[in-house]
Amino acid sequence: MAGYWARGGRGSSCVICSTFSLVSQGSVVVKAATWLPVLRQLSDGAPISGQELGDSIGVTRAAIWQRVAYLKSLGVSISANDHGYQVQGPVYLPNADLIGASVEVPVRFEPEVSSTNTLVLESRQPQCLLTLYQNQGRGRRGRQWVAAPGAALMLSVGQWMSQGIQEIQGLSVEIGVSICHYLNGLGVDVGLKWPNDLWIGDAKLAGILVEVQGDQDQTFVVVGFGLNLQQPVAVDSRVSAIDQVFDRPWTDTDSVGLIESVLSAIRHYPATPAATRISRYRAVSVLEGRMVNVNGASAGFTGVAQGIDEFGRLCVLNENGVNSVSAGDVSVRPEPCNI
To answer: pLDDT, tens digit, for every residue of 237-266?
Structure first.
C-alpha cells in the first residue's frame, strides 16, 4: 500500500529507531532492519520459497515467516503460494551511496525511523535522510503519513539558510513549485494544491512538510517529502501514484533530481524576485480560479483562489475582497464560481 494521510496527533517526542531497534509483532520481537534483506530478495517480484530465502540470508524458515509477517503488518503486499513468497507491485529501495554521489549534502539511509523530519531537525546538520518506513511520520495540521516500505519515496532534506525566518515566509510554497516543475519535466502532469500538496487531477500524489528553526540571522530548514510510487489498494480514489502515470519504475536518478529541485529552491529563494515566484506558482497551481473552502484557526470562509502574494499566502476573493491566507485547510468546492 502506498502513502496516504491519516488523522492523528503530532506528538513532540521522538525515539530514533536505528537498525537495532526492536518492534513487537504479536508475541514475536522483530529487529526493525532484519526485514530489509527479505524485502531486497523479494523486490524483483519473482516468487522465492521460504527455504531459499532462509538459506540466502542465513536464518531459519521460521525467522523468514516472522519477518514476512512483520512486512505485511507494515502494509507490504506479499502473497504465499506453492512457489513461495512473492511481492505484489513494484518495490523501490533507494541506494544512498549512488544518490549521495550526485547531491550537495550528505545522504544517509535508515530502513525504519520514527520521523525523518524530526531526526533531521534535531541534528541541525545539512543532510538528506531516506527511509522505507516511518512509525511516527508527520504531516501538516496533526496528520500522520502512512506508507508501506518500498511503495513510496520518503525523505527529509535539511539545509541552513543565511536569512531569518521572517525573510523566507514563502519558501514552503516555492519548494512545492520547484518539485512540480521537476516532475513535469519527467512527463508527470502534476500540479500544486496550496500550500504543499502535489495533485494529479484532484488526486493526491505527494505531500510536503517544511519545518524551520532559527532566528533573525539564520534558519535551519527541513523539507519532508512523501511521494506515492505504488497505487494504494485500500485507499480511496483521491490518492494517486507514480506507477499510474509513469511507463517505467522510479529510479535513484529520479530521486537525485527531486532532491536537487528542493536544494535549488532553498539556494535560489533569497535572490528570486517575488513576481517570478508568483508567476511560477500560477503555472502549476491546481486552485487558480476555483471556488474553495478555507478552514483555519479563525472562522472559515468561501471564495475564489487567485494566486499567491509575495509571502506565499493564498489570495482568495469573496464578497469582502481579497483575503490573504497564511495557514489553514483549503478544499475545492464542486459548485461553479459566482463571484
So the answer is: 678 999 999 889 999 999 999 999 999 999
pLDDT digits (tens, 9 = 90+) for 266-290: 999 999 999 999 999 999 999 999 9
In tens, the pLDDT along 1-41 reads 344 333 233 222 222 222 333 343 443 445 656 899 999 99
Contacts of 68 (CB under 8 A, 6+ apart): 38, 50, 78, 80, 85
Please name the amino acid found at residue 268. H
Q: What is the DSSP letter of 155?
A: E
* CA-wise closest residue to 130 among 155, 147, 93, 158: 155
Show the beta-strand stretches assigned E in the chain.
Answer: 4-7, 22-25, 28-31, 78-81, 84-87, 107-113, 127-134, 143-146, 152-161, 191-193, 197-200, 203-214, 219-228, 291-295, 301-308, 314-318, 321-325, 329-332
Q: Which amino acid is residue 221, in one-letter code?
A: V
Domains in the chain: ranges and CATH: 18-87 (1.10.10.10), 96-283 (3.30.930.10), 287-332 (2.30.30.100)
Does residue 128 carry a pLDDT above 70?
Answer: yes
Tell me the β-bridge partners of 85: 48, 80
Enumerate residues 6+ apart whose C-beta is below 8 A from 102: 256, 260
Measured distance between the N- and C-terminal CA atoms of the chain, rounded to whole angstroms: 41
